[in-house]
C-alpha cells in the first residue's frame, strides 16, 4: 500500500483569524521532506493547530484583502508544490476529539466515506477498507455501530479512514489528548503501523511529546507569532533547548509533578459532605444506561478524580453529579450544607439555584459560551447572581489563566486550550461550593496546565469541592486527589500507600 510521500513547505507563512488583531502564527519557514516524521511543539496559542489545518487545506476561505476584519495570510504553504486545497486527499488530518471524525453509523461505512467522496472506484473501496482496518488493528465487523466504540477505537477508526485514502502525509493534532492510557498506546501503535505500511510524511502536534519521540526524526519548536526557534533531532533539541522547551510549555520527559505539588500544605481533612451518591445509576440521553452501583461522596475542600477507560460513563457521571442529568436509579442527594433550602435533588433545582451551588465545565467548552467577548463571558455568571465585585473577579481570572491579551476576542476564535481555560474561568467566577470539570487539562501546555491545576488546588484549599473527570494522572498526583475508577462493577476507590501516595 506504499504511496509517494508528500513534501510540505512553509515560506514566511502566517495566518490571522478574522476579527483578531494578533497573528495566530507568523514567519514560519519549514520544509518537511518526503517521508520525514516531524513533531511540532510550543506553548498554547503558538499556532500549532493552525499550521496543521493549513497543510490539510481546512482553514477558512481565502481572505478578502479589502476587508480589515477578515482573516489575513502571508507567505505560502505548499504540498508537493501546490496549494493544499488543490491536492485534497494528499494530506490526512486526525484531530484530538475522537467523536469529531465519526460521520457514519457503521464502521465500514465510516472508513469508506473519504474514498467515496474522493471518487475511488467502488470495487477498490472495500478492499481498501478491510486492509486499513487490519493495519490499525481494529478487528471489528464492518456493520459494527460506531457509537459502541471507545475513544481509542474511534481514533484508530479515524486513522483507518485516512489510510484508506492513501495520503502522502499524515497530520495529527493532539490525537491522544482525550484518551485513557490504553487508548494512547493503541493510537501510538496504530500510527506506527500506518507509517510502516505507507512510508508517508508525518506532522504531529502534542504537548506531551514523550508519546511520539520514538517515531519522529525532528522536533520543531514554534514561538507565538515568532516562527521556528528550534529544529533538529529530538535528542539534540531536548539537550540544547531543555529550559526553553519547558518555558514554552512542552512536557519534557521527566518533568512530571510531585504528589500534592498544587496544594499549599499537607493533606487537609475532608470538610462537610456536599453530595452523596448511593447505588447510583447513570444514563446518557434517551436513557442509554452507562453506569450502576456507584457509591461516592463529594466533600468540601477535597478533590475527587473520576477515572476509568474511555466510554465507561465518566462524563455521564460528571453531568449527573452536576445536576444536569437525572439519575437512572439509586440516590444522589445534596446535603443541607449545599442545598440551603433548595431541596436535596440537584436535578430539580432551577438554573439559578444550580449556578449558585454547582458549576460545570463541559468536555467541549465551546458548548457553554454565550457572550461576544472573553471578558463578557467571564462576567456572565457573577452578574446573573448579583455579585458586587464582578470586574475585580474578571480581571483576576484573565491574569490567572493567561487570557488578558484576549479579553476583547470572541470566545469562538480562541485555540482549544484557551477555550478550555476560559470555560473553567467562567465557572469559578461565580464561586460555587462544588465545581465539576470534564477533562480540565486537555489541550494545555505545561505552563497553562500548571496554571489550571494551581487554581484548582487553591479552590480546594479554600473549601471548594472539586470533581475532575480525567485521564490525567499528573493532575491526580498534583492535587493529591481522592480517586475512583469507573468500571462495569461501579466506582472503585483507589487505595494508596499513605507514605508515598503510590497506588497499592
What is the number of helices?
15
Alpha-carbon distance between the two ends: 46 Å
Mean pLDDT: 87
As residue ranges, the low-confidence spans are: none
Q: Find the structural class using helix and strand composition.
A: alpha/beta
How is the quaternary structure best described?
A: single chain
In short:
By secondary structure, the chain is an alpha/beta fold. It is 32% helix and 22% strand.
What is the topology?
Elements: E1 8-16, E2 25-32, E3 37-41, H1 48-56, E4 72-79, E5 91-94, H2 98-101, H3 107-117, H4 122-135, H5 151-164, E6 169-173, H6 181-198, E7 201-205, E8 218-223, E9 227-232, H7 234-247, E10 273-283, E11 289-299, E12 303-307, H8 314-321, E13 329-334, H9 336-339, H10 351-357, E14 358-361, H11 374-384, H12 390-400, H13 416-428, E15 434-438, H14 446-461, E16 465-469, H15 473-478, E17 482-487, E18 490-493
Helix pairs in contact: 3-4, 3-5, 4-5, 5-6, 11-12, 11-13
